[in-house]
Every structure is written in structure tokens, then in C-alpha cells.
Amino acid sequence: MTNIITHHDIGWRVIICQCSWILQYLCGNNLPYMRFSQYHFVDEIKRNLEKLEFKKPTDIQYKCIPNILRGEDLLAIAQTGTGKTAAFAIPVLHILHSKIHTKREDGIKCVVMVPTRELAIQIHEVFQSLGQNTRVNVFSVFGGVEQGPQIANLEKGIDILITTPGRMFDLVSQGFIRLNRVEILVLDEADHMLDKGFIKDIRDLIRFLPKKRQTLFFSATIDDEIKDLAYSLVKNPIRIQVSPKDPVSKNVDHSVVYVEMDDKRYFLERMVKDNPESKILVFVRTKVRCERVHAAMQRVGIESVFMHGGKEQQDRLEVMSTFKQGKIQMLIATDVSARGIDIPDVDFVVNYDLPEHPENYVHRVGRTGRGRRKGMAYSFCDEQEKPQLAAIEDYIGKSVKVLELSKDGYKEVKDLTLSKTMDLKQIVGELTTSPNKRYGVKKAKKTR
Ligand code: ADP
Ligand code: MG
Q: Which of 46, 51, 54 to mutate to test the pocket of ligand 1 (most atoms within 8 A of CB)?
């Protein structure tokens, strides 16, 4: 049933499994792939897969694992939430466990590079749970925390290092990390890692790696320019692309609501109050807006946490863990949390502001509808953001469903806000005071 087209293109073997969606339609999510128990992985990994209740590979795992085990270079593109992490973690752990014997050899054998610290921690955890009781040592380093403890751990002997490029470059330059034994390089969120902000760091680091190595790129989005750049960094890669037509996850029902900029907070308030049990992730454009929306929600009795690149690392970790554990039901974040973060039970993503870069629409809405779950995403679009919406539609190749609101419906949302009952002076005062100031607002509702 699967129609695999293989063609040669500038020396590239391109495998595009175009009809995987037919399989998914016919079989639901239960693709007829063999179970993990039938794979020839080392027993420890199989047991860990069982513990995690990963019974069958996802589409992207099914297609990537054999190629990675054969030592191929890979460019793998699949929608958000489809299990790309395990698609590289399982075979990498299998390869390294099979190679490492009792005597620990020095030097890191696999480097996984990711754009954010939170993602480094998350991927570290995935490697740890899949690699439990194997001979493989996993560790992560990232900026914003002291180097000392990281260096002490590195000296113990690490096989897989998960890292953000900045800290890694510092440690390599100071001689604390040797990369001369690296056999596998993984770039997760590869298009972002090869984008302008990161490419210099990546190129600098690649200079330290052995030329003969396996390179794996993983992402949910990629454009032609970045693809060419990725190709220039490897020898003879295989490209595996799942569901190439629509980059937005099929599990996400996404739509846009036209809301005036100044009314957005009323709509967010309404949404939270109408869905008191739901976990909601709200994306805003800037750090300042992040803190303002947080304060605006506090004023109407809604507790939230916020996250942006300007926060201290310890705060970032605490915020993430509070939200992941469901202690607080709403996280307001900038695009620093748009990529890769896996919080399994986010019910709604709200684009309070439309993203600046259209691909981030795909990543933001992809924070819901993960694995087999379904999710909803709403974008609040003001008149002045219409060009951004057009860019998003152009990028995803289709228009975003519009949620029509009657005039009366719109007015009702505004009329019902709690903040209308407050003194305007107080509101203006609060918007200009410190974002961290506590207003003593009681917790609005039960959280999960
Ligand atoms: P992606 O990187 O593609 O966005 P992740 O690797 O973060 O996705 O995985 C998304 C979710 O799917 C995670 O919660 C993960 O535990 C789950 N998952 C991954 N592989 C499987 C599998 N084979 N069976 C069941 N769940 C899986
Ligand atoms: Mg990922």
C-alpha cells in the first residue's frame, strides 16, 4: 500500500513515503508496523520501551530506525508530536550500547544539538529512560548555569552529550570537551539550528568533529535554502519525509478569530473561564507582552506562569515543571518555548499574537495534539496582523479556518470580563509596575 518513490537527485537518494496518510486513514493510528518486541534491539532497550508503553514505532520511527542502524546520514522531516526524539534515540542507544564494552573508552561518541535549554533537558530525559540499564552514559550541558558541575560530570566519561551550541562551544574552546571520537551528530529542530542565529556556532563546532561521522537532521519544518545547507554538511544522506503536504500536525484543529489588539485579553479570559479544567499554552510576541498578559490575567483572577528568554535558568526550569505537572494551568510564553517542548496534555494553544516567522505557527500549534492526542489551537488576529496570517497560510499551503463571531457574541465577551469592574487607574498602574509583583489575586480554579 505504501507508495515509495525513490529517485536520484543531485546525488541524493530521496525516499518520500507519499501515501502514509492513506495507511493512517485506513488503520487509524495503528499502523501495521511490526512491534518493537520484534526488532533486534538490545534487551535493555526493549524493556525500556515496554516500560514506556511504546508498543509500535510511529511512522517516522519506522522509516528512520533501519537507516540509522545502517550508518546512513539522514534528513528526517515529520510533523510535530510524531516521536522524532525516539526515532534517533533508540537506534543511537542501540549502536552505542553494542559498541561499548566493559572498559570505558574516553571521548563522547554522540552529540545531539538543540536550540533551547529546556529541550536539552527533555531530550536528556528521553535518552535516560530509553537507555536505562544500558552501558551508555548520557549527559546534557547548556548555558545559564554554572560550568563547574557540568565539567565534573564530563570528566566521568560521557557517551552521548545533549547540548545547546553556545555552552558547548565554550566548553570545547576551554578544552573540557573533546569531540575527536564523535561518531554521530544529531541536529534536532534542524532548520532552526541551521538558521542565521545558530549557523555560525554550528559551523564552528563542526570543525572539531571528525570528518567521518554519521549526521542526522530532524525537524517538522524545513525550507529549500536550509535543506541545501543541510545537504552541504553531509556526504550521502537519505531524506525521509512523512506527510510532506501539510506541516501542521493532523491531530491539531486550528482556527483563527479576528480580535482587536486591545480586546485580546478579554477573549483569553473568556476562554480560560469557559474551560476551567484545561491546560492552555499562550504564545505572545515579546518578553514585555508576556509579562503584561500574565499581569492582565492575574487582575481577573486567573493564575498563570510565564516564560521567556530573559528569565533566569532556575526560574525557567521551575516554570516548566509547574506547568508540566499541571500545578498551574496556563503558561504564557514567547517563541523560546515553541519548539520541541513535549507537554503531553496541553488542551489548547493560543496564539495571542501571531508569530513573526510563519514556520513558528507550525511549531507553536504543535505543542498540543502530541502523540495520539488531539488538540485545539486558536489564533487571535488583529487587523494589523493580517499580513502575518497571510504569510502563515502561504507557508502551510492552505487557509486557516476562521471562527466567525457575531457582533453580539464579540460584545458579550467584552462585557463579561472581570476587569471591567476594576478601576481603570489601577489597571494602568499595574501595567507599568514590575511584572513580578504579586497582586494577591486568589487562584481562579482547580488545576490538574
Ligand atoms: P516530536 O519530536 O516529533 O515533536 P516527540 O519525540 O517529542 O515528538 O514525541 C511526542 C510524544 O510521543 C512523546 O510524548 C513521546 O513519549 C510519544 N511517543 C514517541 N514515540 C512513541 C511510540 N512509539 N509509541 C507511543 N508514544 C510515543
Ligand atoms: Mg522534537
A: 54
Residue at 447 is within a domain: no
Q: How does pLDDT run across 109-140, given as a tens digit for each residue?
A: 999 999 999 999 999 999 999 999 999 999 99
Domain span at 54:
6-242
Q: Say if strands 375-381 and 348-351 run parallel, antiparallel, or are unpaired.
A: parallel
> Ligand 1 center to residue 74 CA distance, Å?
19
How far apart CA 158 and CA 104 sit, in angstroms, is 9
Which one of the ligands is nearest to 36 CA?
1
Question: Pocket of ligand 1, candidates 31, 33, 82: which has the most ligand atoms within 8 Å of its Cβ, to mutate?
Answer: 82
Nearest-angstrom CA–CA distance, 295 and 307: 13
Residue from 188, 342, 363, 364 to probe ligand 1 pocket by mutation (most atoms less than 8 Å from CB): 342
Say whether both 81 and 153 belong to one domain: yes
Question: Do 13 and 85 fall within a single domain?
Answer: yes
Residues 11-60: tens digit of each pLDDT: 344 333 334 444 444 444 445 678 999 999 999 999 999 999 999 999 99
Q: How far apart (Å, rounded) are the C-alpha atoms in residues 55 and 30? A: 10
Domain count within the chain: 2
Is residue 96 scored above 50 in pLDDT?
Answer: yes
* φ, ψ of residue 216 in degrees (nearest 5): -125, 125
Q: Which of 352, 261, 332 is nearest to 291 (CA)?
A: 332
Q: Is residue 232 situated within a structural domain?
A: yes
pLDDT at 218 exceeding the cut of 70: yes
Q: Whose C-alpha lies nearest to ligand 1, atom 23? A: 57
Domain boundary among 197, 223, 242: 242
Distance 66 CA to ligand 1 centre (A): 18
**In a domain? residue 385:** yes
Minimal-distance CA residue to ligand 1 atom 11: 371
312 in the same domain as 216: no
The reply to whether 215 and 356 lie within a common domain is no
- Dihedral Cα 317, 320, 326, 329, nearest 10 deg: 130
CATH label of the domain that carries residue 114: 3.40.50.300
pTM, rounded to two decimals: 0.86
CA of 355 to the centre of ligand 2 (A): 19
